[in-house]
Amino acid sequence: MTHKIWVFAEQVNGVLDRVALELLTKAKDLADKLEGNTEIAAVLLGKNVKGLCDTLADYGAEVIYVGDSAELDLYNPMLYAPVITNLVKDEDPDIFLFGATAIGSELGPTVAAQLKTGVAAHCVELRINENGLLVASVPSFGGKILGEILVPDNRPQMASVKPGIFVQGEKETREPSIHWLDVTDLKAEGLPLKALRIDKKEPKGVPLEKAEIVFCGGYGIGSKENWAKLETLAARVGGAAACTRPVMDEGWSPGEHVMVGTSGKSIRPKVYIGFGISGATHHICGMKDSGLVINVNRDEHCPVFEVSDIGIVEDLNKVLDQLLMTIQ
Fold first, then answer.
1. What is the pLDDT of residue 208?
2. At the topology level of CATH, where does 208-326 sit?
């Protein structure tokens, strides 16, 4: 029996999202746990995207389904979803993985609804159980527990994962089998939803996911003024400032692009310094692979100290002000 694990190879303007390569790496790990042969495939849609096939193959795709059309140049769920849904019906994959990105978080559930199957969203771990089923772990109840989601009776078993949750593996050159999809009849004209253009705004400073030093603020920082202090410290050392969801919800930080956690970004800096962070699973999942972890909190029993290499029990305002005076 041959199993099939698929990965949606998300790309924008001819650039693959790193989550596609991370998921292909994870797909190889899952394949090792399944009995019998397992075929790993990527689904690639867009315009003039053939050049991306070699990269997908290097990271594990043995088969690549390519839909290449000018109509697929800009992402539109009303065009992408039917192509993928029909392909799934024809090929019957066992597992289908999507990145939990702006595109994947819409496209994955849309495809799942059309196929009448289930999708586990924003997973932090994927594994194969003793019955050969995909088990997706998702933080639940405010991050206090990890819930396990299975889809035992429908196919494909679907899941989405944020970029950075899994590690991108090493390249291994291979020759993929490329299957060209017939998308000649695709027409965006007449659809109620039309993609016009992509407007991209580059964030200032070092991108959070590339920073070697990250200063992260939780709800305990208490104000926008303290958030500004974190940004100042990060700028002085060539690092980046990050936050938990409550900080973003309060409007203290500039937006989701600096949020760390299962609904934000996953980071692996050499040094992570947290201020006023409680230690909720939702956030910890996004920074657990950091190198040196330092946290400042006035509550000596705060759960965040359980995942810290160094814990400082002190008023974070005093520590912030001292750092600002020391680091010029």
1. 85
2. Rossmann fold (3.40.50)
- Does CATH number 3.40.50.620 belong to domain 2-180? yes
* DSSP class per residue in 17-64: -HHHHHHHHHHHHHHHHSSSEEEEEEEEEESS-GGGHHHHHHTT-SEE
- Which residue stretches of the chain are H helix? 18-33, 53-58, 77-91, 104-115, 224-237, 245-249, 281-287, 316-326
- Is this structure's pTM higher than 0.85? no
Per domain, the residue ranges of the chain are 2-180, 208-326
Interatomic CA distance for residues 246 and 229, integer angstroms: 18
Residue 78: CB atoms within 10 A of its CB come to 13
Write the single-letter amino acid at 93.
P
pLDDT at 156 over 90: yes
Mean pLDDT of 61-83: 94
Q: Give the SS3 label for residue 260.
A: strand
Q: Residue 190 half-sphere exposure, CB side, CA atoms within 13 Å?
A: 2
pLDDT tier for residue 143 given thresholds of 50, 70 and 90:
low
Domain 2-180 and domain 208-326, same fold? Reply is yes
CB count within 10 Å of CB 291 equals: 12
Give residue 146's identity as a one-letter amino acid code.
Answer: L
